[in-house]
Every structure is written in C-alpha cells, then in structure tokens.
Write a structure and sequence with these properties.
13 helices, 0% strand, homopentamer, mainly alpha
C-alpha cells in the first residue's frame, strides 16, 4: 500500500506520460490542419461536445465509486482474515487441552499441537498470497511499459520467492507435497487443518462442542478465501470498462475541434479590439498582442491536453 | 464470462450495428429535408435538448450503477455457493464417522457415504445451472438477431446437454426419476440430501449436534439457491427500463434538429469569413472551403450519430 | 409483476394522459398570451430555468435510486420468505420424529403433524398477503382515475376472496376464529406454530436442541414479516416526495416561458434569412417558410410538452 | 409520522416563510441599487453562478441521499425492535416452564412470571422513547420559532408525561427507583431482565440452553438500543452541514446579480423590438409593453426568489 | 465530537485562511497582467473551464459521499463496541456463578472476579484509544500550521497521559508489564481475558456452554478492534485523493482566466451603454459608472476567490 500522504505531481505525470503524448498529437494535428493547411471548416460546435463531456464525467464518477467500493470490500476481507486469525489463536489456546482427553499430554506437547496449527495457518496465508499474484488476462499494469518501469522500484515478495520456498518450515514435508500437488493450494491447507482438528477431537484433546466452534472458524476462513478469490477473479465488468474507455477517447478526439472554435473566436476578438489601438503610440507592443491574437488558436493545444488529461486520468485511476 | 482485457471496437460496432443504422437514418432525414427540400424552419434550439441529454445521462448513470450492483450481487452469491460447497465437504469429512455409530462401518463404506453426498451436491448444481438458462420473457438477447449471431461462437453447455444426461452418474436411477419429476429440481436434490443425512443421524454415523450444523449448510444452500433464482426472476423493473429507453430515443430523435442549428450557424460563419478572402490569389482553394461551409450542415449526420451511439450504447450496456 | 419485456408506448401514454393534458394547457396559455394578446414581455431567460432543470433531474435521479432500492429490498424479503419456508419444510421432515418420544407414533401420524405445520404456514402467508393489500393513506394509485382504469384488467386475488375464505382448510375452526379475532393475524399464526411446536417438544417428538433450531426459524419468519410490514408502512418520506413534486411543477410551469424565448429567436432568424431570398423566383415557397418563421413560436407547445413529460414521468415512475 | 399523502403547498410555504422573506430582501436590494441608484455596473456574469448552482445541487443531492439513508436505517432499527419484541414473547411462552424445575409452579404462576417480563420490556421501550426525545444541541427544530408554531398542533406524549408516570404499573416500586436512579434508564431495564432470567434458570424454570437463547435476545435488544442511540447522538457531520448551508447562501446571494444581467438583456431587446412598432396605430398598447421592457429587470425578484427557495428548501428538507 | 449546531463562519474562514490567501494571489496575478501589462490575449473561453468545474464537482460529490460512509461506518463500529461491552457485562453477571463449581465461592469473591474482567475490558479500550491516536503518514491535520492552531483549544486525553498511566489500576502489575511489552496492546488485553475465562471454566465457575458464548463476545471484540484498526490504517485511496486535489487546483488556476473574459465583456457593455448617456446632465455620475466599467475586470478577483473557495473547501471537508 502506498503510504505517503500524496503522490507527487512528477509521479503522476510519469505514470501518464504516454497518454499525454497522444493528447498532444491529437490536439496538434487539427490545429495544424486549420492554420497551416487552412482547413477553415474544421470547426465543431462546442455545446454537443460539452454534453458528451458531462455524460462521460458522470459515468466515470459512477465507475470510480464502484472501484472504490471494490477496494474497500477487499480491505474489509483482508481485515476479516486478520480478525479470524486472532480469534482462531485464542480458540486454539482455550479449547485444546486435557479436560476430555483419553491420554493426558504435557503442557509442552499441547503447545506443540497448537503451534502446528498456527504454522499451518501461516502456510494457508502464504498460499493465498501467491494465488493472488497470479497475473490475469484483464489486468493491464504488468504488461504496460510504464507499469513495468514503475514496478522496478517495488520488490514483490511473491515474485522473489516461490511458494515452495515460503512453505518450508511451516508444513511437514509430507503435507507440503500434498499441498503443492493440489490446484487450489490454500484450500488444501484448510483441509489439512480440519482433518487434524478432527483427529484431536477423536482423542479428546478438543471437546466435541469446542470442535464445532473451531470448525466454524475454518468455514469462516473458507468464506474469506472465497471472497478474496472472487474479487481477484471478477474484474469490473469488461463491457462497462471498454465502453468507458471508448467514450473518453471519443470525447478526447472531438475536444480539440470544439476548442479550436472557441479559441478562434477569442483570437478574432483580440485582433479586432487591437485594430482600434493601431493609431496609438506603442503600436509595436500592440502589434505583438495582435500577433498573439492571430496565433491564439494554438492555445487549443495545451488547454485541450489539460482537459483530456483530467478526463483520462480520472478514468484510469479507477481501473 | 468474458476474459479478454477489452472488447475490440469491431465487436462493439457489430453488436450495435442495427442501432447505428437507425441513427444514420434519423439524422439524415432532417438534413435532407433542410437542404434538399429547403425546410429552413426545421431548427430546434440546442439548449433544451442539451437539458434532456443531461437528465438522460444522469438516469442512465443511476441505471448502470444498479445493473452493476445486480451483477456484483450475482457474483457474490456464486462465490457463496463455492464457499458453502467447500465447507460442506470438510464437514462431511469430519462429521461422518463411527464415533456414535450403532454398527461400525469400514473406512471404505464411510467414504462411499460421503461420496454419495458430494455427487448429489454436484447434481444440485447442475439442476441449478439448467434452471438459470431457461429463457425469460423480458430477456432480449436470445431473440434478437445480433444476439443470435453473437451466440453462435459460444457453446453453451446447458443447451447442448439435457439435464437428464448431466445428472447421469451423480444420482441413483431412483433419485434421478424423483428429481426430474419435480418442478424445482434443485430443491428436490437438497430435500434428498437432508433426508439421507437424517437417516445417517438415526443410525449414529452423524452425531446429533453435528447433524444440526450440517443441516445449517443445507439451509444456507437453500438460501443461496433462492437468491440466485431471485436475481434470475426479478429483472430491472420494467417501468424504469422502458422509460429509460423512451427517454434515450426522444433525445436521439430531437438531437439532429438541434445539431443542424449549430452546424448551420458555423457553416454560415465559414462562408461569410471566406467572402473577405475572395479577392486573394488562390481563390480556387478558398472556393472549396466556402463550398465546405455551404454543406457544413451535413456534418450533423456523423456527429449526431456519434452522440446517439454514445447515449444508446451506455443505456444498452446496463441492460 | 409485470412480465412483458417492455411496456408499450400506448400503455405509458394512457397512464400519463392526464398529465399530458395539463402540459398542453400550461404551454399553450403563454404562447397565446404572447402571440394573440401580444404580451411581448413574457420572455424568461433560459439559463436559470435550465439550472432548475438540472437540479430537478438530479433530485429525481436520487429518488428513483431510492425507489429502486426499496423495490429490491422488498424482493429480497420475499425471496427470504421463500427460502425460510423451504428450510422450515426440511427441518420439520428431519426433526419431527420418534427418537426422543415418550409414546411412539406411526409414520402416518408424524406426517399429519408435519402437514398441520405446513398448512398453518400457508395460512400465515395468506394473512400476510391480505395485510399488504390494505390501502394506505399515502398510496395514490387506487384512488386516481387512471389507476382505477388500469386495475380493471388485473384481478387481485386479495380483493376477490376474503381472508376468512382463504384460511378455510388451512387452519382448524378453532384456530381460524382465534386468528381472525386478532389485529395482526399473521403474528397470531406464528404464535400458534410456536405453541404447537412447544407441545411437541414436551412430548418428545422434537428433540430439545432441534426445538431451539426450529424456533429460530419462527424468529426468522417474524423478522421477515416485520420487514415486509415496515416497507409497506413506511413510504418514501412525504416531505421529500412532496417537494420533488413541487420542484417538477415549478420547472414545468416556467419551462414554456423560457422556451418561447428560444423559439422566438430562431423564428426571427428564419424570417430575416428569408428576407434576402425574396427577389428569387419561387418566392411563394419562401413565403411559406417565412410564415413558418412567424409562427415558429408555436413549436414551444409540443417541445415543452415533451420535456415536461420526460421530467414528470421520470418523477412519477419512482413513486 | 406524517401520514397524509402530500403536504399541502400552504404548509410548506408556512414552514419556509422566514427564508422566503430573506430571499425577497436579498433580491430586491440589488434591483433597487441598479434601477433607483443607477449602479449599472452591478452585473455579474451568469455562467459562473450557474456552475456554483450545479455544484450545490449536486452536493445537496448527496446530502439528501444520506439523510434518507439515516431515516431508513432508523426505521429498520425500529422494525427490529418490533420483531425482537415479538420473538421475545414467543420465547418466553415456550421456554419458561416446569420441565426442568426444582419446584413445580402452577400455570397461573408461570403466566405471572412471563407477564413481569413483558411489562418490564414495555418499561424498557418507554425509557428508550423518553431518552430519544431529549433535545440535542445540534437539533434546530424545537428552538426555531416556526418549529414551535408547527409543534403546537402536535401533542408529544413524551413531553406530556414524565418517565416516572409512564413506568408506573410496569415495574415494581423497587425496580422503578433503581431504574430512575440510573443515567441510562433503558440499559437498567435490560439489566433487570437478564438478572431475573438468570434467577429463573437457577431455579430450573428455564432450561440452561433456552437461557442462552433468551440471553441472546437481550443482547440483540442492547444492540438495537445502541443503534437507536447512535442515530440520535450522531447527527449528519456538522462540517458538511455547515458548509452546505454556506454554499447555498453564497449561491442565493449571488443569484440576483446574475439574474439581473439576463433580465436586463431581455428588457433591452423588448424595448428595441418595440421601437420599430412605434409608428403603428395602437402605439399606446406598445408603449405599455415598452414600459414593461424598461422595468423588466424587476422580474428578477420573483424569479430569483423561486430559485433560491427551490435550492434552500431542498437543502433544509434533508436536515 | 463537535456538538454545536453549526460552525461559525469565522471558524471556517480561519481554517481555510491559507487557501484563501493563495486564491487571492492566483486570481490577482492574471488580472494585473491583463490590465497593467496589457496582455490582452490572456483570455480563456469559459465553457471548457465550466466543464472541468462540473466534472470536478461531480468527483468531489462522490468523494464526500465515500468520506461520509467511512465516518458513518466508524461510528457504527464505535456503537458496536458500546453494545458489546454492555452485553459482556450482563453475560459476566449471569454466567459467572457457583452452579457448576468444584469449590463454592462467596458472592464477594465472584463479584471480584467479574470486576477484574470489567477493569481489564476498560484497559482494552484505553489501549485501543491510544493506538488510534498514533499519527499516520497520510494524515494532514497534525502537521499543518492551521491544524496545530486549531488543536490548541482541544485537550486530547491521549496526548496528555501515557498509556502506562492510564492502565494503572485496571490491570495487575504483572499483566500491565505483559501488555506494554506487546506491539498490539489491545490484542494482548483480549488474550488475557480469554485465558482468564478459560481458567474459570476449568474450575467450574463458568459452565462449559456459557464459556462458548462469552468466548464469542471476545471474538466479536477482536472483530470490532480489527474494524477500527482497518478504518484507521486504510485512508481514502491516495491516488484518488491526490488526483482530486490536482483537479481542483487545475480548475482554480484556470478559473480567473475564464472569468476575466466574462467580466471584461460586461465591462465593455457597461462602458458602451454609458457612452449614450454622455450628453445627459449628471455626466459626472455616469462617468463614475463608466470608470467602474473600465475597471470591471477587477471583480474577477473576489468572484473567482469565492468560487475557488467553494470548490476547495468542498474538497477539503471530505478529507
């Protein structure tokens, strides 16, 4: 998780540098056509473009809302895993004992049993972490160049160590082989837990009713695991995401044509208003402003890049 | 589920090709009336149309939000079925045993019992899948031509095999006949499960309190099945959906009339501004631009098709 | 529930015919005052009206969202009743038996006991259905004329049969009298259920712990009944609903004044632009267009009726 | 709860009469400055004001949404209290009996025990009701004059009878003194309930496991009580509420300046267009319209009062 | 919690004084460039800026909605802690007794046991409170100067007393050392609770099944603690927050350029309309107005400061 208070402007510009490049091209081309090639008919009325802009802003707003909800839900599930882990620990401490045992164990032996469960629980979490790092076909970041650059600075534990290395010491050799042989490794860990607990109950180290309660914890962990996998495997619906992207690009492409219109109008007004100052003394200075008016249409470029950037970044941030 | 990162533009254009066709007609007709038949009174002021556009964008935003929530809820329920299935499995493993049994069974026999439950659970899931594929009167896709074309590429398992074929091997012959004779086949499967479990408890292979816990799993499965059926059977309220469609079409129909106005204005400005260049040398080129100005109103067609397409596709994607 | 894919345009126009009538009057009156009585000062600037329109669209959007949530919640509760009913059925099958019985009953007798519960459960549902059909003071539909027309085509079971008729066969005579004597008849049914179950437990036909589980089902049914009653008894807060209505009508009343302004401007432009065509040959045709320009303001009527209709229908659909 | 279908226009105007008065002043002052004192520079451009208007409409929309959610949650909690009360009743009926009793009680005595619980439960509800009527520092209504007028017509039970009077008959004298001596009287009632139940369990009138279930009901009632108190004690965050108010007032204050601009323009157009009719016969009538044009700016007052009223009432209704 | 009805205008202005200062500079600079340095080309068209404004208003609306939801959730968790504390208290009263005890304790001794639990529960709450006051890297308030000024008036208990001081009297010396030695002190407290309870169960002062119920309360407290820590540790996603800030500032920076345009236009109109009054008598007065018209562009400053302030404060309030 990113923990500084704010991203710096530089980071964001770097992250969006490719888009900015496109926007510059997209807005320069029509201005060149207009001024150099004199395609004076290249105007588009601003108001319909503005309507698309409003509609797009609206859709992006809803999308980002949904993205935030997903993020929040993911964070809740993660918090749930933390809570359940703590609860499991106190339950193991309180419910694994000699009270109903057929053969009394020493405190050290009971401690070893509890420790086995805790270590296996950590193995479950490691497996889950690795499963979540598997790349999915709809995830953009890892494949994009800017994403790769960005990641160089991050060291991702799951890409440095294999799951096999990470499980060492947390599972017995036999258990490790069993877990690694399964497709859903985290579910295999939980199966081992429940089997072990069941054996303990049969021998009386866990009271039958306490067994039901701990079993509920494993059911809860299955639920949380399932939720995590669901969020991982179910992206923001592709049809929505694709269309949002299209709408933003339609808006971005049309934008400079509409802006040119507005800037051209202002340019004309500047030129005209300067005409009346012509007979005045420092006409050299006024000539400069008049020139500015003539080339005023070029302001379309930075301005439409800014607006395109705002809309596109808004859209991408929620991805 | 669609798993590529994005739909291609081609796919989306194909999917909306019929609508695009209508939009072209809807926007061409008024332009022809205006230019060819010289109905110069065919203007409409842009601002009220823009207001409708904003209102419609707003409503569609809310609708898509609701659609997304439905989708997300459906995905949650499906995740819930996965989780409950896993939990049911570990419960059957841990709770079906000889501890309280009147007559001790071999491990193989206990395994067979558990297997019967698991197979019957799969039968329940197959029945549920088939029930969800039944077409409903308010679902558009399967009947629309574009939808049919689209589906040719998808092979839907539920349409290839009958439920009877799929249940083979998962239920005994007797059970299969019972399930197929019922209207709600998935509920019948769960009834069989609970009856079998009850018998096991009477013979002591399931401890009375464990019985209560497993029974709770069946209650949970009933709940999940009910939720799935609810989402299937309760579409986005028809009155909202219909009116949204109407509003979009009212907007789409009025759009070209308002756009014509704006484009006509720009056209006139172009023509006028070209007048002053007339005495200049390359007047042939300027004449071309002036011509462009005269026919500028025809830009209404592509532009209003784009806006119509954005609004309509936005509306349809949430359906 | 309405199950066709879409309402037809005709149905919706019929449903809103009274409003449409008002809108025609509201927009015709100012146009007549302007054109016939020559109150040329009757203009209003469009932009502030547009702002009201945006604000109103926004508020209606939120309201419809809330309406949809209510509907969805109601549907969930209804799904919950279905699920709980099924769960209750399998519980009665599994938990009502001779295992802990003081006096062994035949299978037939046990079946009769279970059947009594199921029938009484149906009686509970019938009572609930009838309670939900009681008209409330804030419900508009049944009293409005259009609503009455619309309902003629629907045959509402709850208005055709009295509750007393519907309970026949589901409750014993004694129980029926008891239930009908109570104010909250559905709660009375559940009280009977729990009392009967309690008696069964005392005689040993229901194991004490199973009793606790089934009792939880009745608690769940009480909860669901309470939720249904809450949704029925707590309408969308009246202060919000009333003000929404007011805001829509303020917008609808001001609308034609602002539109007249815009249409008048266009009319003047048409007339002016026709002036220059006057010396041309087919001036008869141009004269027609000029006439059209003079009366262009009359387009305010259909156009403002359409916008009023869109906003008002949007508002009414969420009611 | 207000149960009529709609508030009348009169009620709402009365409720907002003070605000309307301010709006009249706020919009009259600039018009007087403009027309009487000829401060012709008092224009403000409309578009930025319109932007504030849109932003404010948006914020109010979200706020009202949040208000509605709070109201809905409050209603849910209230429904929860009803449901839990009913469930508690059937539990007391079913679980308080002689089955495990050390000393058999008569039916009448058991009935008396149950009745004590029910009466004490009513005492809990009365205490809760009184606690909710305590005025809080951030609640506006009771202190505002219009609020006081409005309340005269409502007779609030909690202000007519003291809690002490209301508890009479529901608690024994000793219990009543104990409850009234505590700060959180409703919690005290629940403590009494749980203590009494505990005593019943010790004497065997409540089975140990049933005791656990009923205790859960008291835990549930604590939860519901806590929720009710939370909604009461945690208003819509003051910083949001205050800023919303400020934003609305900034908008309301700027509004007439921007409107004046628009109305003045229209007025000028009217005057100008009348000029050309001057030579026509009924110039007296046209002179009237021209006069209307000259004073057209005064229409700013009613129009800006209406818009201010719409925005402000929207904001206040969600308070 | 802030408990007055509204913040005063003064408080809010103080809180935002630094931003206001920036806005004044940001809007004064372009006006000076325009008027003093005569950079007459410094216009920007208003409409695109207005579009950014709408989009930004929209995004801020969603963000504030999310902020409010977080606040509300935090309040719910806090309410949950209150409820669970009360429930724990009645459970300790009802379930800690001699009924299953191996060695009967006096009432005083049982009371002492319960008291130990309650005091340790308070220690848990104190630890949690202190943990929540730890500053996080993304929290702005404590470091900003205005924040520090503001806080001078608030006395924060957690900053005045160390946790060690606050735990005195609530935990035994031995327990206190154990708790303070742990990283997550609140979890350590709950571990002590559960260990103590477990010991009580072994000695029979808590019935085995009651033990399961109280243990569930500790699990619940772990859950609530985890939720509180989650809300504390997971801020509104930094990428959203940063971009919102950027978008607001882009809007604020562009704003004066667009406004200048509008005000300049009005100024020109005023000057022009005054021209025609020149020959009239009190031309001195009109000259004043004309002067006002010439300097009308300076109104850009206050007006754009107000709009910037509204947007920025809206954005900051949700932080």
């Amino acid at each position: 998780m990113y923990t500084k208070r704010n991203y710096s402007l530089k980071q964001i510009l770097l992250w969006t540098r490719k888009d900015i490049f496109y926007f510059v091209i997209l807005s320069t081309v029509p201005v060149i056509l207009y001024t150099v090639f004199r395609w004076y008919w290249l105007h588009l009325p601003w108001l319909p473009i503005s309507l698309i802009g409003t509609a797009v802003a609206f859709i992006i707003g809803f999308k980002n809302n949904a993205s935030y909800d997903r993020l929040w839900e993911a964070r809740k599930v993660w918090g749930g895993i933390v809570n359940t882990s703590r609860s499991l620990t106190i339950m193991l401490n309180d419910y694994v004992n000699n009270e109903h045992a057929k053969k009394i164990l020493s405190d050290q032996e009971l401690f070893e049993i509890r420790k086995t469960f805790i270590l296996r629980h950590i193995a479950w979490m490691s497996s889950l972490r690795h499963a979540l790092r598997t790349p999915k076909s709809w995830e953009a970041e890892p494949r994009k160049k800017t994403g790769i650059d960005y990641r160089k600075h991050l060291e991702i534990r799951e890409q440095k160590y294999s799951l096999e290395e990470e499980l060492k010491g947390y599972l017995s050799e036999e258990e490790k082989d069993y877990v690694l042989s399964k497709k859903n490794k985290q579910a295999a860990c939980l199966n081992l837990q429940s089997k072990h607990l069941s054996a303990l109950k049969t021998e009386g180290y866990v009271w039958e009713f306490a067994h039901l309660e701990i079993e509920k914890m494993f059911v809860e962990l299955f639920t949380l695991q399932g939720k995590v996998e669901r969020i991982k495997n179910f992206p923001y619906p592709r049809q929505f995401a694709t269309l949002n992207k299209f709408f933003v690009w339609i808006f971005v492409i049309l934008l400079p044509f509409g802006m040119m219109n507005e800037f051209d109008k202002i340019g004309i007004i500047i030129v005209e208003s300067m005409e009346q100052y012509k007979p005045y003394p420092n006409s050299g200075f006024h000539y400069l402003i008049e020139l500015m008016g003539h080339y005023f249409i070029w302001f379309t470029v930075p301005f439409s890049v800014i607006i395109s950037w705002v809309f596109n970044t808004m859209e991408r941030v929620g991805e």
